[in-house]
Amino acid sequence: MNPLEIIKIDAVISVEQSVCGSTDILELEWFETNKRLIRRTSVQGFFLELEKQQRQKWNDGDSLWSNGSCIAVIRIKPCLAIKICTDDLQMLSDFCYYIGNRHLPVFIDSESNCLLVPYDGNLFDQLKAKFQNFIVLEETQLLSENKLLNKNS
């Protein structure tokens, strides 16, 4: 493959359905998982073009195929996130209400049963003042499969 040519991805196969031998990685940010068209250079320098089908999301671990060959694997980059951990349901509901008024996505950390939102400096200061030691910053992947969805999503 020539690194200067555009490689059009003709199939995206979920990590559960595919074994991809490629070591190349296409890095995406958490907020790019719903983008319809992505044109980006992979870690190894190949220019890839992906166009998703309707209602498809890009997921961490999806393999990208072109002409029957696995070209790369999608990796969702870790980012700084605001995390709240508590068993207090009143506090969690207050947190969700506070975040909901800002129209930010909320993610569940399935390993610790905590809630995560993408980092915002002003928001972090406000949440820290309101929820004190229950709020921490963490570098983590915000994956679409862990996103809380409303009924209209």
Major sheet characteristics? 4 strands, mixed
- CATH fold node name of the largest domain: HSP40/DNAj peptide-binding domain
Distance between the termini: 39 Å
SS elements, strand count: 11
- What is the H/E string? EEEEEEEEHEEHE
If you had to describe this structure to a student in words, what would you say it looks like?
This protein has 153 residues and is α+β, with helices and mostly antiparallel strands. The protein has 2 domains: 6-76, HSP40/DNAj peptide-binding domain (Sandwich); 79-146, UreE, C-terminal domain (Alpha-Beta Plaits, 2-Layer Sandwich). It has helices at 89-100, 121-131, and strands spanning 6-8, 11-13, 25-28, 37-41, 47-51, 63-66, 69-76, 79-84, 107-109, 114-118, 135-140. The strands form 3 sheets. A 4-stranded mixed beta sheet has the order 2-6-7-3, with no helix packed on it. A hairpin with a 2-residue loop joins strand 6 (63-66) and strand 7. The longest helix has 12 residues, at 89-100. The radius of gyration is 18 Å and the shape is elongated. The mean pLDDT is 87.
List the helices and strands and how they pair.
Layout: E1 6-8, E2 11-13, E3 25-28, E4 37-41, E5 47-51, E6 63-66, E7 69-76, E8 79-84, H1 89-100, E9 107-109, E10 114-118, H2 121-131, E11 135-140
Parallel strand pairs: 1-5, 3-7
Antiparallel strand pairs: 2-6, 4-5, 6-7, 8-10, 8-11, 9-10
